[in-house]
Amino acid sequence: MALSFMRKESEATPEAMVFSDNFAAMDSLAEDLDGEIGADKWVEVSNTEADEVFDEIKRDQTFVILTLSSDDEGEVEACAELIRKASNAELLVLLVIGDVSPRTMHNVMRAGAVEFAPYPDPPGALQEAINRLRVARTQGGGALGSAKGKTQRSGKIVGVYGVAGGVGASTFAVNVAWELASIVRSEGRRVALFDFNFQYGSIATFLDVPRREAVYELVSEAGNLDQTGLMQALSSYRDRLHVLTAPRDALPLDIVAPSDIQNILALARDAFDYVVVDMPQALMGWSESVYSAADVFYALMETDMRSAQNMFRFIRSLKSEDLPLNKLQFVLNRAPGLTDLSGKARVKRLSESLGIEFAHMLPDGGKQVVNCCDQGAPLAEVARNNPLRREIAKVAQRAITLVTTTEASADSA
Q1: Are residues 347 and 246 both part of a single domain?
Q2: Listed residues 123, 149, 175: the one ending a domain
Q3: Do both 268 and 339 map to the same domain?
Q4: What is the mean pLDDT of residues 227-233?
Q5: Mean pLDDT score across all residues of the chain
Q6: By residue range, what is the domain housing residue 106?
Q7: Which strands, in side-by-side order, build the sheet including 191-195?
Q8: Known SUPFAM superfamilies for this protein (predicted)?
Q9: Which of 115, 149, 183 marks a domain boundary?
Q10: What would the 3-class secondary structure string for the chain be?
Q11: Which of 32-36, 83-87, 178-182, 223-227 is modeled with the greatest confidence?
């Protein structure tokens, strides 16, 4: 990479000035900037040239891109100082970050950056951030000002809970989240999947996404978490689904307090339109926080005695805490087929003994389900015509209808 500030001679009004001293992925970033902005529309500048550059940049034509890929105290302070100088010059600043801690992100964002993009993951984040800066520039910075002052989304929480191990709750959560993301993608809405089983969560395996170091810092310092720290901890699946995986190491489930979970979910609501939360089987002090925040909550079970006993206990726990049951959707996984009359009779007796009605009865997807999980892909990507996938697609569509109806009822009330 041998660009310099002298590149201005060939382009009088570059769209972006890029400060990239010590940025680890600059070669890759340069290729992406060439594709997004244009090879002759951006200029790489050294940090020592900042004062000169900031005096010459025309605010209505050019914005500033600052890079940071280290938690080194000196580099963090240098980046923060550049942000302050750019802000004082009333320039729009995009911060491109590598693998840094949420604490570092918090420090540099407080210096005055108005936009940030994790790099290189998730794919598409850089493009989205640049587009937002372009809109803000054409509106005199008003768009960013309103974004900072008020949230633009009011996401819906979809909880998923398996009353016993092996009932397929994580598989259900993964596929519901993917179906939701596919349905609302054309509308510009965003979907996230959170794995709250901090010990042995399997979402990362089922979607073949990396477990980030930032996830541990997010969980251990959830009370001080902000929007930038949350986004830094997320992975991305096929540029469509944002994923919070379980940490790399098994952690105690009580590492977070109810207030921590409330903070995480509040930030998630601000950033996404739908957030699917995969819960651990163990009921913790913060489980009530997820249930209370959820707009719809799916409880999965099978037709065996173990599931029946655990579902009975789960319902009693909710009633003992005076929690509403109207958001609860009972789901029977591996339900008997149409011709299995004895199986259907067992389901009827089970429903009557528990005093519940199953909102969804999912068929057994067979070996294709196991293969998809092992391959790290949703059913829709590998086994689109699988009967379980078709039923989960209906669940996702109905979930959208449920939360929309609930919202409309609340507004009318």
Answers
A1: yes
A2: 149
A3: yes
A4: 83
A5: 86
A6: 5-149
A7: 235-237, 241-244, 191-195, 274-278, 156-162, 296-301, 328-332, 358-361
A8: CheY-like (SSF52172), P-loop containing nucleoside triphosphate hydrolases (SSF52540)
A9: 149
A10: CCCCHHHHHHCCCCCEEEECCCCCCHHHHHHHHHHHCCCCCEEEECHHHHHHHHHHCCCCCCEEEEEECCCCHHHHHHHHHHHHHHHHCCCCEEEEECCCCHHHHHHHHHCCCCEEEECCCCCCHHHHHHHHHHHHHHCCCHHHHHHHHCCCCCCEEEEEEECCCCCCHHHHHHHHHHHHHHHHHHHCCCEEEEECCCCCCCHHHHHCCCCCHHHHHHHHCHHHCCHHHHHHHCEEECCCEEEECCCCCCCCHHHCCHHHHHHHHHHHHHHCCEEEEECCCCCCCCHHHHHHHCCEEEEEECCCHHHHHHHHHHHHHHHHCCCCCCCEEEEECCCCCCCCHHHHHHHHHHHHHHCCCEEEECCCCCHHHHHHHHHCCCHHHHCCCCHHHHHHHHHHHHHHHHHHHHHHHHHHC
A11: 178-182
Indicate if 187 and 251 belong to the same structural domain: yes
Give the pLDDT mean for 275-295.
95
- Whether residue 302 is found in the same domain as residue 223: yes
For residue 365, what pLDDT is reported? 94
Claim to verify: residue 231 and residue 143 sit in the same structural domain: no
| pLDDT for 409 beyond 70 | no
How high is the pLDDT of residue 139?
A: 58
Q: Encoding tokens for residue 367?
A: 């070996």
Same domain, 213 and 85: no
Mean pLDDT (whole number) for 222-232: 82
Q: 345-387, pLDDT tens digit by residue? A: 999 999 999 999 999 999 999 999 999 999 999 999 999 999 9
